[in-house]
Amino acid sequence: MENTNPAVTYNQVDATIPNARWWHIIPATILVYIVAFMDRTNIGIAIAGGMDKDLGITSSVAGAAAGIFFFGYLFLQIPGGHFAEKASAKKFIAWTIVFWGGLAMLSGFVQNTWQLMTVRFFLGVAEGGVYPAILALIGHWFPNKERARAIAFFQMNMAIAVIITSPISGWLIQNYDWRVMFIVEGLVSLALLFIWLPLVADHPKDAKWLSAQEREWIETELRNDAEENKRNQGALSKGGYKDLYRSLNLWRMVAIYFFMSAGFYGFSLWMPTLISELTKSTMTVVGLLTAVPFIFTIIGQYIFARLCDATMNRRLFTALSFFGIAISLALSVVLKENVWLSYGMLVCGGFFLNAWAGPYWSMPTLLFPTEALGGARGTINAIGSLGGFCGPYLVGLISLYLGSKMGVLTLVVSLIIAALLTLSLPKVTANK
């Protein structure tokens, strides 16, 4: 029933709105990206589980094989983000699932370094537009006041992926081998279509499962957001793509994402190897220990997103997350002689590891016009994600010549740079 009492607060009115959007859109996006993230990062545990020895590759080449994914990842970022914003995120993602699932399976059949590099590159191409497409989909369903939480819930896929897949991947490697792991997890990717297609709609007007009350509320809020964003943006960014690529804010957001990606993916991909070196455990135990920090990742994401939506200070909570990962990672290296204390610092790093995502990805709508928003997200994710190549590669290369301690400290510096750049963003991202 419509609430007409002027004394009722805005939040109390919101509590009367049905929440079917949270139970259809968010679980489907989480499942898709759980599997996408698994297929992207399971090479880390495969390397720790003997793939490097079987293929005869060094640590620097292993890092390059893990990171070359991100060069392929460039190609569909902007087209994918634009197509999802203007046409259909649902159809775009459905087709990418077919291609990346097949390529994930092919990883189990590679016989040498060049075959591995090729498959990893095209896996990156296939997955490239998925992230900006999902962000566009979330933007069509969740207004500004809910967006940090919606993105944070979606981003929990990465932590859930590691919690679920690291022990399974470790078990598959220990009982079979790394080839079986790739094949089985590729088949799981293809099965996603049976979940994605029936659950998701591109817009509230397309969803038969949505009540009229919820549809009207979402569409009204999104219209209000669009008007407010135009007022707030002012001279920050005007027009379409021509003005977008002249915007300092775009390239600042790209740089932040680049340095974050170097630290984030370096931390994620090399964690199984770090834990293996620390504990000297079996691969099943390494898989289980790798999962623990990501349990705390979910907690950190939820807390930061709630605080961010409550204060609307996007840049502060983004920067705090980067500082938290950097400090935890640095302490894990400093305390390396004490195995479990060092591991405890990795667990603390897990709390901050993905807490930046909800606040960070809420900022593009505040900085860029709707006409170019899909392209802005795609550009940020495309160029910024190259840090995902540089992080793992630098850790492998520096570890080869200077030791693993210096390799990990490179990631710490990268994360601090990302935090400082975040604090330089316009005041509108801090609700000022």
Polypeptide structure, described:
This protein is an all-alpha fold. The chain has a single domain, classed as MFS general substrate transporter like domains (Growth Hormone, Chain: A, Up-down Bundle). It contains 21 helices and no strands. The chain has helices at residues 10-14, 20-55, 59-67, 69-72, 77-106, 113-127, 130-141, 144-175, 178-191, 193-199, 212-233, 241-244, 248-279, 283-311, 314-334, 339-352, 357-361, 364-367, 373-384, 387-402, 404-422. Helix 2 packs antiparallel against helix 9.
Beta-strand content estimate: under 5%
* Known CATH architecture: Up-down Bundle
Number of strands: 0
Rg, rounded, reads: 21 Å
Largest sheet: none
**Series of H and E elements:** HHHHHHHHHHHHHHHHHHHHH
Please name the CATH topology.
Growth Hormone, Chain: A
The CATH top-level class label: Mainly Alpha
Taking the alpha carbons of the first and last residues, their distance comes to 35 Å
- Write down the overall geometry: globular
The CATH homologous superfamily is named: MFS general substrate transporter like domains
**SS-derived structural category:** mainly alpha
Q: Share of helix among residues?
A: over 70%
Report the mean per-residue pLDDT as an integer: 83
In the predicted model, the low-confidence regions spanning at least 5 consecutive residues are: 1-13
